[in-house]
Amino acid sequence: MQWVRFEAEGVSQWGILRADVITAVSLTWDEILAGQLPDVSDSGPQYQRDAVRLLAPVGRPGKVIAIGKNYLDHCRETNTEPPARPLIFAKFPTAIIGPGDAIIWSAALTQQVDYEAELAVVIGKTARRVSEADALDYVFGYTVANDVSARDLQFGDGQWVRGKSLDTFCPLGPAVITADEIPDPQTLAIRCELNGIERQASTTSEMIFGVAQLVAFCSQAFTLEPGDMILTGTPHGVGAFRDPKLFMGDGDTVVVEIERVGRLENRCIVE
Ligand code: MG
Prior knowledge:
Number of helices: 5
CATH superfamily of the largest domain: Fumarylacetoacetase-like, C-terminal domain
Distance between the termini: 38 Å
Strand content: 35-45%
Bound molecules: magnesium ion
Number of strands: 19
Structural class: mainly beta
Radius of gyration: 18 Å
Largest sheet: 12 strands, mixed
């Protein structure tokens, strides 16, 4: 099942997307995460996907956890050893935007804005100290993320949270695909293109720590709550490690696409 959040007739609402038609439902995000489904009698109005504005397909998560250096091919391009354990950082939830929204930054703040194609995990149930064997039971679903990164701030600060958390730097969507449709999240093609040119192309099988390991690892240290998100790292091909370096600029269009999960497109505005 594909869940979307959208705006129609001035109202933000949740819906189920099937073959480019959205059926509105009168459920809250908490109810959806808990596995509730609309009654047959409750099926709401229908909209063509292209006739409404899609929003980020999540509520306001309590946490957006992100994982650094989690693809073997990315470690090879950065000439670093694979980490011995997951490298965790945070993106503030205020950075979230939806499909089609603009990634906006000030040239006075950063001049090195980069893309990172990532599979995003949406937690469905409270997870504390769960085992790797049980971890996927706590996953509600998956969506596409772009872990947009201001490299000058990320590396200049010595820690990453500011450069990863600028407003608009966490595009998500277009839909959350429920976990039953993706029984093995480690077999998905993942790619990114900037202005129509492919810049990242890999597979989630290159992840050093897979989704189950990440959920289990995080839950040993802190409680994962319904709606929390884990961005699982990016494969090789990011702009900062290309020669010459490649950063995004005003008017650019960036697309992240993950097999069976979706295609997320955003444009860039430099103010
Ligand atoms: Mg990342």
